[in-house]
Design a protein that fits this description.
Layout: E1 6-7, E2 10-11, H1 14-30, H2 34-40, H3 45-52, H4 60-70, H5 74-91, H6 103-115, E3 118-123, H7 134-144, H8 150-163, E4 174-180, H9 181-185, H10 191-204, E5 210-215, E6 229-233, E7 242-246, E8 251-254, H11 257-273, H12 277-291
Parallel strand pairs: 3-4, 4-5
Antiparallel strand pairs: 1-2, 3-6, 6-7, 7-8
């Protein structure tokens, strides 16, 4: 698991790094040097270095020439062109999220979520961002203590609400969320804020593209007791799932099929130990009526 490398102040993207590794592998298999590869696209070896590290957006003509130079077949060439296309979509200039005070830390995640087909999320102590009310999100931003300017806090809330539009678009984002019971009982913002937040959970649980389960306290120990994460899937067949998790000081991406499969397995095991969606709704409703009325 590696943190996103950066060029100056600009982070490379997960798919660009994936594409760069693929090109590196093809070059190695073909026995070509970076100098030779650079010459094939009328450039220098330094550009090849940047491409293989995912540090620059990649042009389709360069990819086609390099694939031909490396002896790649049409299937591999097409797959890499698809990865490049999706990466360019995520890099498109000034996405709406770029104006958030959190943009430096979360821009890559939000950009990816914006073009994703499905997100699977496991949360220990917080309601997933895609389901949060504005008051809950505001309370989190205030309690974080990082942002003192009220305008920054309001912009954070606006961005979070904007993200939620993906739930009800014509082609909605599929969300499979598993939440620990503690997140339902932690009084973020106080009883009134939590009552409305749990009511919001009950509302989104009825959306056809949302599956919500609760891991109850009575389940005891479980595979994901020590960390939270998001698994992001794309519509493109050749775009592998990527996993996002963060700590207090860093964001970590898992961007290879082997490690990603481990997270998927752990998510599935945790989901199986959780309440079924219908029973989860019943628990949320009982907590809402019992604690916050």
């Amino acid at each position: 698991m590696n943190e996103s490398p950066k060029v100056g102040n600009r982070a490379s993207t997960v798919l660009a790094r994936r594409l760069g590794r693929e090109l590196h592998g093809l070059r190695d298999a073909a026995g070509k040097t970076q100098h030779e590869a650079g010459a094939s696209i009328n450039s220098t070896n330094s550009k090849i270095v940047k491409m293989e590290r995912g540090l620059v957006p990649m042009r389709d003509p360069d990819i086609r020439v390099l694939c031909e130079f490396y002896g790649a077949d049409a299937k591999d060439t097409g797959r890499l062109l698809e990865l490049a296309r999706l990466d360019r979509e995520r890099r498109k200039a000034k996405g709406w999220w770029q104006h958030s005070p959190q943009a430096g830390a979360l821009a890559e995640y939000i950009a990816m979520e914006d073009v994703a087909r499905r997100v699977r999320t496991w949360q220990l102590s917080l309601i997933p961002g895609l389901f949060q009310t504005s008051d809950y999100a505001r309370s989190l931003a205030v309690s974080d203590g990082v942002w003192e300017d009220p305008n920054d806090i309001e912009r954070i809330v606006e961005v979070r609400m904007k993200r939620q539009e993906r739930l009800t678009r014509e082609d909605p984002l599929e969300v499979y969320a598993v939440v620990w019971e503690a997140a339902l009982r932690q009084q973020v913002g106080g009883p009134q804020v939590m009552r409305r937040q749990l009511e919001r959970l009950l509302e989104v649980s009825q959306l056809p593209n949302v599956r919500l389960q609760v891991m109850p306290f009575q389940a005891g120990g479980h595979p994901c007791v020590s960390s939270t994460f998001n698994i992001i899937s794309f519509a493109e067949n050749e775009a592998v799932d990527v996993v996002h998790t963060d700590t207090i000081v860093s964001i970590v991406w898992v961007e290879n099929e082997g490690e990603g499969a481990v997270y998927s397995t752990f998510f599935d095991r945790t989901a199986r130990l959780s309440l079924a969606p219908k029973d989860s709704v019943s628990l949320i409703d009982s907590i809402c009526k019992g604690m916050y009325t």
